[in-house]
Amino acid sequence: MLIRRPRGWEIPERDATPEALWTRRRTLGAGLGAIAGGLLGGRNAIAQEDPSAGMYPAMRNMRYRVDREISAENDATTFNNFYEFGTSKTIWRAAEKMPIRPWQVRIEGMVEQPRTVDFDDILKAMTLEERVYRFRCVEAWAMTVPWSGFSLKQFVEWCKPTSSAKYVVMQTFQNPSVATGQRASWYPWPYTEGLTIDEATNELAFIATGLYGKPIPRQNGAPLRLVTPWKYGFKGVKSIVRFNFTDQRPKTFWEQLQASEYGFWANVNPKVSHPRWSQASEEVVGTGKRVPTQLFNGYADYVADLYTNRQDERLWA
To answer: φ and ψ at 110, to 5 degrees?
Structure first.
């Protein structure tokens, strides 16, 4: 007899919305959203400028479910870190000035064919889906959000790295005329992050191009950003313009700035405190509640085996 043990992230099937009902609700929601977009200004109107809007909402992948309610969209889109536009959590107005078309992405390094590709061509080549993930910031706050996009594994395979590549390095755009935070010379621009190839091809690793059934807003990293839900949020490099495959581990943005506090791996661990605060619990934004933090942010079943031979590394930022 096969005895199946539920994983920590799963909820009982009886608590899941039936797929047919969910699909009808999503279709209705998309129609209402289009009407609202025609009536409202601000962020809704700006989102309609994105030529990929017709590709959303993507079908939700029910493999990725969590035991928390999805955060309010307004919280997730107005409470952000994006240092390119400043250090406050309310940078969304400044980020709206960022042009997202045309947007080209450079694929380089140890790949069969280095090339520059248009973002919309990447979208056409990928299989879009929606995934609900926990999000945990190193500052000890958390959300639960529905990202749309494609698996990083699919994208890595599309890039065709050579067998010598050990890391994929990602960089944000650089345009200080719009992103005024980039005028701060003490920051090591452009924002640089990286993963090992085995992390990048883990099934959880995701490139987000949408959020809440629409193209991802600029302040959340439009038009494409990294999502690694078992790591602290600063790993989630936004507005990516470069993927470089290399055999050298990169020096990431926060490592260059403050290596004693922020490391390369940045995996979530409630037992390892930040030098200036505890990581044992987290505030769920919009609820006023603090809850215990989980190892690997609740995703240990997926990723713990990535680090069994790396225990001599500083795995917990």
So the answer is: -85, 70
Residue 6: Cβ-neighbour burial (10 angstroms; 0-12, 13-18, 19+) = exposed
Handedness of CA 155, 142, 146, 95 (dihedral sign): negative
What's the CATH number where 253 sits?
Answer: 3.90.420.10
In a domain, 20, yes or no: yes
Residue 228 within any structural domain of the chain: yes
pLDDT of residue 232: 98
Which residues span the domain enclosing 264?
13-307
Q: Is residue 31 part of a domain?
A: yes
How many whole angstroms separate alpha carbon 39 and alpha carbon 26? 20
pLDDT digits (tens, 9 = 90+) for 272-304: 999 999 999 999 999 999 999 999 999 999 999
H/E segment holding residue 60: none
Residue 315: inside a domain: no
What local confidence, expressed as pLDDT, does residue 87 receive? 95
What pTM was estimated for this model as a whole? 0.86
Cis peptide before 6 (omega within 30 of 0): no
Q: Return the pLDDT at 25.
A: 43
Number of domains making up the chain? 1
Residues of the chain short of pLDDT 50, as ranges, are 1-6, 8-48
Total residue count of the chain as it appears in this document? 317
Strand, coil or helix: 105: strand
Helix (H, G, I), strand (E, B) or coil at 172: strand
